Amino acid sequence: MTTLDRSWNIVERIRSKAPLVHSITNYVVMNNTANALLAIGASPIMAHAQEEMQEMVGISNSLVLNIGTLSAPWISSMLVAGKAAKAASKPVVFDPVGVGASSFRTQACTKILQEVTPTIIRGNPSEIMAMAGADGQTKGVDSMHDTQTAEEAAKYLAEHFSCVVTVSGEQDMVVSATETVWLRGGSPLMPKVTGMGCTSTAICGACAAVADSAFDAGVAGMVIMNSAGGMAAAKAEGPGSFQMHFLDALYSLDKKDLIL
After folding, report:
1. Torsions phi, psi for 47 (to 5 deg)
2. What is the dihedral of CA 82, 88, 91, 95, to 10 degrees?
3. CA angle 152, 176, 215 (to 5 degrees)
4. Span 50-83, pLDDT tens digits
5. Which residue, among 8, 1, 59, 64, has the nearest Cα to 32 in the 3D structure?
6. 90, 57 Cβ separation under 8 angstroms
7. Which pTM value belongs to this model?
């Protein structure tokens, strides 16, 4: 089965099973990522209170942790949920938004990485380099490095934490301890819309809930994003209409639309 075949199979599974994706994510992107999950066929739940984490993880098929708007109570909830998900053998997708921008943020990422050991880490090149302890300067949540520069850091994380690392950029890269895949597509409009990286993480969460492997989930997540991004850009006149067309593209995505 080819990479495109496996990715399309995952899309079909999402649409038939409607996996429940529990997202502890940031205020900026909650609406965006929830709508994206609905459009591709998954079911989102956005819960943050520590008191309900065990129950929410119990009914969910995967967990997404996103530290975009970080606070101490949210870190505690992420740790509780992450440990519960791992104990139940449910995939955890981690987005270290802006890691390296502050010591508080970096320390939180380190704690999550060590205590939860996510199934998939998805970030931009600067975030992945900062996670690996490399010289990854971070400008807010934007990357100051390209994907190729982060390849060594991604491989280190994949090997050291037995996870899959997905790096978003002009070219996307998905890395495990034994495999590396480079993916093309998307659109220059995507960085002009807030939360597209976070949406990638959420989509990877949906893929991980139904995929046979974390690597297939990471690849499928980025194939879906890039394919829908290209479809949306072909119709959009700017960032505003791109966002609308992107949701429509996720909803109407067909196997013939997929690109690598």
Report:
1. -125, 140
2. 0
3. 140
4. 999 999 999 999 999 999 999 999 999 999 999 9
5. 64
6. yes
7. 0.94
